[in-house]
Design a protein that fits this description.
Elements (H helix, E strand, L loop, with lengths): L1 H22 L1 E10 L10 E4 L4 E4 L5 E8 L1 E8 L6 E7 L3 E7 L28 E3 L1 H9 L5 H4 L5 E5 L7 E5 L7 E5 L2 E2 L6 H7 L5 E8 L3 H4 L6 E7 L6 E9 L3 E11 L3 E12 L14 E16 L2 E17 L2 H4 L10 E18 L4 E21 L3 E22 L2 E16 L10 E15 L4 E12 L4 E12 L4 E12 L6 H5 L16 E17 L2 E15 L2 E5 L5 E5 L2 E16 L2 E16 L2 E4 L6 E11 L3 E10 L13 E12 L2 E8 L33 E9 L1
Parallel strand pairs: 1-7, 11-14
Antiparallel strand pairs: 1-4, 2-3, 2-5, 5-6, 8-13, 9-10, 11-12, 13-14, 15-16, 15-39, 16-17, 17-18, 18-19, 19-20, 20-21, 21-22, 22-23, 23-24, 24-25, 25-26, 26-27, 27-28, 28-29, 29-32, 30-31, 32-33, 33-34, 33-35, 35-36, 36-37, 37-38, 38-39
Amino acid sequence: MIKSIAIKSILVVELALCSAILSAQADISVLIIDSITREKIIGANIIVIDLNLKANTLKDGLAKFSKLPLGKHKFSFSYLGYEPVQKEVDITENETLIVSLHSKAYESHEIVIQGTRSNRSIAKTPTRVEVLTEEIEEATTMDPSKVAHLLSHSTGIQVQQTSATSNTANVRIQGLDGRYTQILKDGFPLYGGFSGSLSIMQIPPLDLRQVEYIKGGASTLYGGGAISGLINLISKEPMVDETILHLNMSQVGALDINVFNSRRLDNIGFTLLAQRNTHNAYDADRDGFSDLPELLKYNLNPKVVFYINPKNTLSIAASLTKETRQGGDMSLMKSETFTPSNFYKEKNESQRVTSQAMFEHKLNNNQTIFFRNSFNFFHRDLLIFPSFIEGEYKFAGNQTSSFSEVSFTQKKNKNILIGGLNFYTDHFSEIAQVNLSPRDEDRKTFGGFTNYTFDLSKKVFVESGLRADYVLNDKVYILPRLSALIQWTNRLTTRIGGGMGYRNASIFNQEAEIVGYKNVLAINRDKTRSEESYGANADIGYKLPLSDHSFLTLNQMFFYTALTNSLQLKTNPNNTLSFENIDGLVTSKGAESFIKLGVNDFTFFLGYTYTDAEIQANGIASEFTLTPRHSIKGDVLYSLPSQWRFGVDYEYKSSQKLSNGSYTQDYITFGAMAERYLDRWMFFGNIENIFDFRQTLNGRIISAPNNTPQFTEVWAPLDGLVINFGVRLKL
């Protein structure tokens, strides 16, 4: 009897323990939403890291975990195109967790385009626009000091180095010279003229959230200069609180210290990027001349947004940059002693101050007025020691420019009408003049524009634009533009568009930059006309979701651009140089193809560009220099959310014509990167040009007349293999 009672007591205790254990568990549902739109995200990944449990959100946006032990557990939440989130959750009862993910605007989601002014999603924008979002973080890992690496991610884009020793460069789109590319920051034209060759080497990527490319004539949108296209760099908004500390160094002498901070209070938000970038002069081929310059650069980018009330928003931003970069004879990087054998040096000292202000006033839900103003001050001293006998040559000046605009936007149903007026000034004042007439430039442009985007039917969307610019003491330029989007199905689309453009004649071109503006005469305004263009492009795109975690994107584009009155630098009988209009046509035509495939945690990209660019003058056609007819870019990326990311990229360029009529060899380069995430830490490493291909393996970069690298055309990497590594901490 006693034994039976004991057994029953034990069973009761065991049942009580089991009940306690069962009651120490909970059922958890997780709802993942977009932090901005508040829409449910389907297919998001949720991992309970300490329990190694995984789930995905279903059609209702929910993922469910049954019978999780009570207590603290570490969760990971992620989805393609969104910033991954890790957080510790204390589970005490059955509950539903609501988690917001901050969008990186992955292409399968609603990406809002700003460059076309209509602020439509990319899926409904008739103008062909390419957008980079998640590539920004990768490019920041590779080089946080400048956007040059980031801008080369797209097919048809070439970053062309203009100096073999100081590493200045510009951006070429579809084979055309860099002077035909317009670079904007948040829709403000800030980076042209005298500052153009340094712009992409000074703009940092760490505070960017989106980069937009519009290829082909786009002067209708923002005025003269965008003949081959425009690049709009869009900075981060203070939507979330974050502080990022980013440290980077390399085996070739780079050290980058970067801090980004973003805060949002009730009615005010601000972002701040602060940088210090240094680089030792580096001679990859040991020929005595620098292949990477000695560099000291400071950047400070503050931005404040006042959310005054639901109808009024004021944004004020600034950028301050101070840089010293010098290259040349390596012995002169350590000593200022010039000798007949060691004399060549190129030094750039520059300061840039820019401001941007935008006020947005909503009249009602459908009508908005925008006021924009920007100011840019740029000072640059360019010193070159071309020969021991000639000594120092200096070209220096101040560039001041401003941009003011008032515009009105009206939305009715799905139609968007935009109209506005703007006033653009650009003044260059030379400081040191040597035996030449003044080369000051002054331009004032009054512009008016209208842009109308409408749905012609459920499958056809049209965007039309017209701009009229009056350039003081020149003439009126009428620039029409028309684009159309046809959605044959939800997966198959066609875009076709075209427009006209112009660029005012200026000495600030790549040819003058190479010679350091020495003996380059001022533009003869009585004889020299502005460069003008017309062009069109068309593409076919196909998107196929293969599964919840796989997709396929295909795109085929064809382009054509023609220029009249193109400028060429010619040598005069007295050995001076002057820019003159050629009597002929400059054309660039070709095709771009790309395929992007995502399979679970893998993403594959392959892009091919065919470019046929030539000058037709006096009945003779000649091929563009430094323009590969065939180029291929590709990469493979593996991403394990909140843990690892690995990538391999490659680039192939076919033979390029040089100015002496000879042709280079074709070549291919490879790179690799790895990132490791540990809570708030991210450790990274990157290898560029793994197999150390260098232009100097095919001949020295010494060129006539002074046996220096000054006039050397750069067609391949000079720095060879580069390894950089560092850490990023989110506070």
